[in-house]
Predict the structure.
Amino acid sequence: MEKQAVINSVQGNGTYQGQYGLLYKWEVAFDNGDYGTAMTKEEQQSTWIVGKSVRYDIQAKEYNGRQYFNVKAVQDKPAGGGGKSYAKDPETEKRITRMSVLKAATDLVIAEKLSMAELLVYSEVFEKWVYGEAVKMPNEDLPWQ
């Protein structure tokens, strides 16, 4: 169940070696009366800070007839659904495109469809094509056309 509250206390409670490596356990108490165990990968964590208001999920668990609670911070989801979404600057986009078309032209040189002398010429042709420009192939009688 997702909730939001201010953290009243945080106490380290050892470590746990799990399938994802070493985790640090924290006993966290909130101003609304909730409490539970939280896990972090870092010993010097910055999620569970006294006085900080946090959104968290709390789950009741039972082990050997004893009930305990796990708490986990709720992260804001990126806009637009799943996955990270961020815009690259135009220069980065251009460099990525240039590397891609150079790789394609290099593959043609390796396959002996182009000569080394034609490598950059065809890379530029491919780049123009990617950006939607009209292109004329420099050598109309290539064997792979």
Q: What stands out?
A: The chain has a mean pLDDT of 86.
